[in-house]
């Protein structure tokens, strides 16, 4: 099938046209860059060729073979930008018309082609024709009107067929017909048919800029494009988007001096997201001007590769605002732009997630711990609060709140849970940690939404109210570590020894329902370093220095106050036997119900009797222990060490359902 590429397409695009939507052929494809994968095309209109750069959102067209050497494509959305004194077509959207075709014509590069002779100008042809000074013709009863110079014609019955570009054709009573196809036409009847090829008039400025004198370069407002179509090859652009998150103003000091920075995240109606960053003087212009939830028109910024260590958004670029940038508030609300965009994952999927990855989760808050002060390594104090989330996947996870989250959303959640309500919490951009199992933590760009009015929240609440609150669930925090099994088995105390658990290279994991029969109290805790290393507390043992201050050999620092952390030796037993286990800080607090420091002060400084009463009150209570079992060397002797990573008081309703389920499975076999 013969194919006609759009005549004069390359020259028209270079003149600034963005509405032609031409048919062109791909002559060559080359992959560019290493960090950012991009594809450069060489496209042709059969006379001229021009380099074009594909937007990254179109990379799959090349990878899947929809666009390859020889393909006929239609450029749907594109601009022509000047890069290093050369013009290049940036393709934002395209359609493949013919996947594979022979090379058409003998095209030359734009810079190598003759200046004015690439292709006859069809508009000049029309305007110079005698008696035809406009692009409109009318018919009032005749079968044929004036014959004009045509691009091609074929006759099968002696009649004349005119193929002429036309803007509009009117027929009132005659037999003149107008057709749009561009690939050619034939006349087998007695009527004259006029075919319009795809040649378009030269690009004209938008109507609002006509007849107002000369327009300075770049005076017209930039065209609004989707966020996903942004790329650094565009000279002028504008985006319309809603601010979904705004970071705190941060100050820094480096070799170039002091500075300040803040960023905010944008979401548009097509679901595209991108981060915007401002430095120094630009901070003064925009920090107080932008507000979360409002819609803005933003333009004249520069695009740079996103720093994925700090930017979790699914975009390879981020915008840096400059002195000439504009951020204009849209006075009217745009309902097509969502207030927020989530990508929720079940808690169970976090178990296999990589450390430091970013997740959106939604679940029911089933417990909230008090906020505790934490001293960071830089000497600054912050707050930490731990809560537990549960969802329909049958798993729970710890969410650690840091800083202001503790006193805002954290305090509200604690009051709600303390009053007997179990709120729904949506977490946007929680950071995964694999320290002692998998958990989530807040970062500066995290957002928390309590009881949000979204379908996912209603579904979780309905599940919880219909019995999900009583469903036994497993925690992926502090009881699953990298390399461990995905779901530890239920065991009895005697099975730990008889089955040789912990004797292999990797630790074994087991869940045991048992009672506490004895707790050693002579060394139930130790003095620990309170400093933060990154997002984790040091926790190494500290000693008194010569000036009565505490000293950490690992951090090489001294401080007035230390932390106290549990190191409990506990004997547990069930109907099959007993064994010794070790409980560290978190599981120690779950068992004793008090911070280690408070019990330390009771035992050694105030009321030893009260301390003994607390210890005795925890004996012979049943717990569901999650145990890590691993053989370790003690001197020249190998011993099996059993560590408690989670201690939950037994829920008898949940245990009853578990046992009934076991009975059902036994009967089924």
From TrEMBL:
One of its GO terms (cellular component) is DNA replication factor A complex. It is found in: Nucleus. GO terms for biological process: DNA replication; double-strand break repair via homologous recombination; male meiotic nuclear division; nucleotide-excision repair; telomere maintenance via telomerase. Residues 347-451 form the Replication protein A OB domain. Signal peptide: none annotated. Residues 239-309 form the OB domain. Heterotrimer of RPA1, RPA2 and RPA3 (canonical replication protein A complex). This is Replication protein A subunit. It comes from Salix viminalis. The lineage of its organism: Eukaryota, Viridiplantae, Streptophyta, Embryophyta, Tracheophyta.
